[in-house]
Structures are given as C-alpha cells and as structure tokens.
Structure prediction request, 666 residues.
Amino acid sequence: MDYLTVKQVAELKKCSGSYISRMIRDSKIDFIEKINLCNNQPYYLIPVSALSEDLQAKYYKQKRTETGIMPEKKQPENSAETAFKYRLSGVSKAFEEFSETERLTIRFWIDKINEWLAGRSDRKDKTEFDKLFVVHQKYLHPEIEISVDILYRKYAAYKNGCYGDLIDKRGGWNRGRSKLEDDSIIWQSFLSVYLNQSKPNIALCYRMVTAYIAEEPPELVEEIPSVACFRRKIEKLPFAVLEYSRNGEKAMKDHCIPSAIRDKSDIHANDGWVMDNYTFDVIVRQDDSSRKTRRLYITTVLDVKSSVLVGWNITESPDSNSTLDALRFAMLRYGIPKRLYFDNGREFTALDIAGEQRNRRVAKAKKGNIPITIAEKLGVELIFAKVTNAQAKVVERIHRIIKEQYCTAQYGYCGGNVVERPEILKSNIRNSTIETEAELRQTFADFADNIYNVQSYGGSEAKYKGMPLYKVWNTSITETEFRKPNKEFLDLMMMRNAGFQKIGKNGVFINYHGEKIWYYDKAETWKHIGKKVCVRYDRNDPSVVRLYDEEDRYLFSWQCADWLITRYFDESKEKLAELGSGQADIAKQIRQRAKELRGKGGLTQKDGLRYLSIQNAGKFHIQLPKNIIVVTTNEEFESRMAAGLENITVDINPKRMRKNAEMRRK
Prediction:
C-alpha cells in the first residue's frame, strides 16, 4: 500500500496543508502516525486508498507518467502466446500493486527499452545494432545482467503490459545491491536490537523487526529480505563495533584498542615488581580434625624482568597486611626493588603505603596530617595500573598458570565457576580427602620454587631463550645494584602507622581490626599531652607502639594500657583498684613536678602588681592638642529649676523601687 505525506495530499487535492492537517485532527480522513527518527517528532502518513477515486486515479496517472509506462490498455488476445514465446509470466498486474522499489526497477527497464527503440529506428542493420547496444549497456552498467535475448524478453513484457516481468526476481539488474540500505528503517531497526549487550541472536532479531515493521510501517513489509541477507550484512560490520556494542567497553579495549609493546631490554632484575591478588580455585579444610571448609587467597609478587615469582602470602583476606607480608617475604629473599607496580584495590592504596599518590580524597581530608609512607621509607617508587587495564599487568598470567598447573592437581579443586567444577569434588569433601590449609601452603611453596621458577624463559629477549627463570634473574641482577635488607630493618620499616594525632589524657590509640586500642606510659604520657606524634605499630603484634615526631624522629615506645579499660557495669573491685592506683600515681607525679617547677621563689601576684605600679609611676600623662574645636549649639537650655521649686528635693531609692516592683509582680 502506498502512503502520502500531508504535503503530497495537499498538492494532489490543490489545497493547503493546514486544511489536510485539520481533516486529520477531526478524524475525517484515515491516517497513521509515525515518529521521525532524526528529531523524535511525530508526522502523519495518509494511505492512497483513503482518497477519493478521482484523486487515486490522478495520483497513479502521475506515477505512470513519471515511470514512463504507457496508458492502461486491454490485454491483447495473443498475450498467452507471447508469454510462452518469451518465457514470461503472462500476468498483467495493475500499476498500483507494485511497490515503490519495484516501480523504480520498472522505470529503469522502460527507459532502456525506449532508448533502444529510439536508436534502432533509423538503422538498417537492426540486429547488429541490438548487439552493440547490449555491449554498450554492459559497459555502462556492469552490475546488471543483459543480453539480446533478455532485451527482447523485456520488450515483449513492456509491449504486452506484463510489467512484473520487467523485474528480475533472480537478482539480475540489481545484483550487488541490497534492499538493506544503511539508512533504511528496516536495517536501522535491526541494528538497534542486535547491537545490544544482551546478545540476542540474528534469528530472534529478525523476528522482532518483522513484527515491528508489520505494526508500524506496514508498507515496508514486502521489502524485508530473508534472514540470510541480514547475516551477510552483519558479517560486513567492523569487528570492533560488534565487540563494543555486544561485549562492552572492556572487551573493546582488550581486543580492539592497540596496547603498548613493553621493551624489557633496558631494565634489570629488581627494577620493578608487580603485585596482585588471586583466589585459589581450591577448597581446603582448616586442619585435620575439622570438617569446616573455605577458600584462601594469595598475594603474589612477580619480577618484571625475569618473571620469577619472588614472593607471596597466602591469607584468609587480601588486605593491606597481606600486601606487606608478601613484600616482606619477597624482600628477605630477593632484596628491595626500585619500583612496585600495583593494582587499584584498597589493599594496595592504603594511606600508609601509597600516601597522597593514590588516596587523594583521604589525603585531602587529612591535609598536613600524613606521615611518611612505607614506600618512601624503603625508597621504592609506586606505579598504579590504569583502571580496567588488566593486560598491563603480567602477574595476571601467573594466576592462570597457578590455576592450570597447581589448582587442578589438588583434590579440593573447585574450578572458577560451576561449569568447571569437577563432579568428584563433593565426594572428596565428604570423605575429607581435600587438602588442609597447612598442606596448601607447603605444596604451593614447593610448586613456586621447584616447578614455576625453574621453567624455561618465554619472554621476548632472545639471549635468555631456553634459560630457567631463576637463571635469568641471577644473570640480570649482576648488572645492577642489589639492596639486601635484614629482618630487623624490614620489621621497622614496614610498621603500620595510624597517622598523626595529639597525645591526650588517655595517651594515644590505634584502630586494629575495628577495635580502638589505647597506649599509655605512666612516667611519660602526662608530660607530653597536646604534642603531635605519629603512632606506628607491628601489624602482627600490636601490644607496643612506637611514637615519632613530625620530622620522623623516634620518641618513645608505649605499652597497651589495658588498665584504662573497664566494664560499663559490674566491674571487679580489683580492676577499679588498679585504675584508681594508676590515676593516683600519675596525679602524684604531676603535683611533684609542679612543686619542683615552682621552686623557692617568694614573689606573689599581689606583690607583682605593686612592683609594676611603682615602676610605671609618673608615666601616665594626657596632653591636649593646640587646635581645639569647641562644640556648641544654638538651642537655649532652660533650667530644670522652675520658680519656687529651688528648695524641693526628690529622694530616689533604687532598692525600694526594686522591692515595690517585686510586690507588684506578685
């Protein structure tokens, strides 16, 4: 069915567009409402069948004239014979029954037939001209299929009014073209459904688009090609566009955006270490006597140059303490690196590890209250990976190796998801054949040093090809400096800090696993109340803290003040006695020190004021300036003493007035 716009109907009816719009508003004419995809504004289409018969005939006469089709005529008697001779369908369809696309095809062939007839009319060698005409058309239109026989058949169809035979149903004239133009509503509707991260398949999208076209622009239904046409056109779309639209931003960056090719030839062992966390795909028991199971985490430390696994820490939770434990273990074995390449997790961006470099929001809130970080004390530069850029971290590859080579060999292997989970796992858990935590720690240590670190080098540097990973590290470390720390130094440098705080009457405190722990020294704390200090503590033994001044100079070591903590109700007499004894002892020290500071001086404050008065006697003097302006008024001032009232006095007693006012209020 053909549809016309409001403007086209107005031109056909020879009236204004507002008149047609008014007819639509008053529902005096059939119409369908559409939405313009460009500006999201509605517009109206009027079916040709809704017009009067005269207007319909006028419209199709104009279309026939534009197309070049001869006026309608009766079917010739020899139409069946002609159809058989030229392999035509012999069916004459009304012009109105063809779609707009088919009309364009008909017009194309009518133009070619008229051009051919005009050229051969003055030629004596018409058969030879027909061959030349066909060759010329193949040169002008290489995409169409044309021959002398096809030309004669098209002419017979045109002459006998069989316009349907001018359309090559086998894709001759329009081979190489597609009904799915890039800007067509059909193709755009299909893409809007298909390019979706829910990843619908092509067949489902085809069904949805077909249903949509049938409801909204039904005149386009006959132009919808087969599902195979959509499949072929999808294959021509750029892979990057499909990856982004159906798999998301990260997949597009991982598979389509070029990444940096990192050259390791100019770096050495310990120039940089990479750290990350991984969840073991292994379920373990706590110990031999327990049936309680759980999964553990590992914090891994990898040398960038040699890919040696220099250190690790297996933990119940991958927090900042696990990060420091893994680093301490690696540094005791392989020395201190120059750089650390971190992820953006909270376990790597803790304020006392990264400082202002990564914890900018917290650092801004604690401006001027951030002590020197652990990385700064160790002289290590921190580098943080870009968010969602896992390809930049080579440590991700060792996690895959750990899973494929180590985890799969354990009885408690559970896989990374339900699909990977082996069926025998339930039986192993039920029979307690899965590993314990202690076994996991021991077997992984054997795997790391005796299997992974002795495998062949697979990097890009040819001189290390075939060499074990540990030998790559040994060879490269001789070409650079090596900083080897001792255990005591690392324990001191890797102490956690609670930031700067002022010493209060209860001393100083740290927050340890959500609990506030106070520290006090009965001989020193009261002397330094109000002093700003940095509190550092051992993450594995928080019984003692070390205090440093603002320039990171060591001051004191204070013990945990358990004697300060009492129960809210029902506290024991012994605990209260201990608290009272401590308070009395501190108060005694303060009084004694105050007495010592006062000494034997006999000057009192009253004497001090008297001596000040004697010292400044005679100094006070007011001197008036020479230029004095007298301030007067022209208003005469009458004496309040009227004649005959000079001897009358008024007694004003404020005490009596207050008493009278109080009595009135009562």
Q: What stands out?
A: Confidence is low (pLDDT under 50) at residues 72-84, 171-177. The two ends are 101 Å apart (CA to CA).
